[in-house]
Amino acid sequence: MGDWVDFICRDVMSRVPGMPGGLNPNGLLIEQLIDDRGNHPQGVQIPIMRRDWLVGMLKGADLLSADAHPLGGPNDDVWRDSNPGLGHRLRGLAGLGDKMDTVQYHDRATNAAIVEFRAQQAVVPIWRWDNYAERMHRFFTAINEGERDGVIDLSAARLT
After folding, report:
1. Could you state, in order of their start, the residue ranges of all structural domains in the chain?
2. Is the Cβ–Cβ distance between 87 and 36 less than 8 Å?
């Protein structure tokens, strides 16, 4: 398990521009404070370490999830969003309902969902990652730049 953690934190992350030495595996997974969109001025630190999160993956546990940290426990103030009715700070995209993030796009603010691929349905061999990334880029470009009332072509070949 240590080799997996070192591979991700040091080998993979050292290839990211601006991170020549990679990341400290014993550091916080989310380093910035969470302010619940300005509702929590002092901010909350999410206490999940990179090493624990990566090792959890190997054991089938996603520590960066609401399921791993149920509300109502002794650390409820860490996990419960301070905005009434929003529930868990680690809720998934489906838990957002009609809530969106404001992002800048072509010099204007617009509402958008920030998507994370955490439950890929098919195993994608490493030799197909570039194709997968390109198809996802085309898909999201079509969503963002297409006609608001137009149809998005979802007929791309399935991953096998």
Report:
1. 2-97
2. no
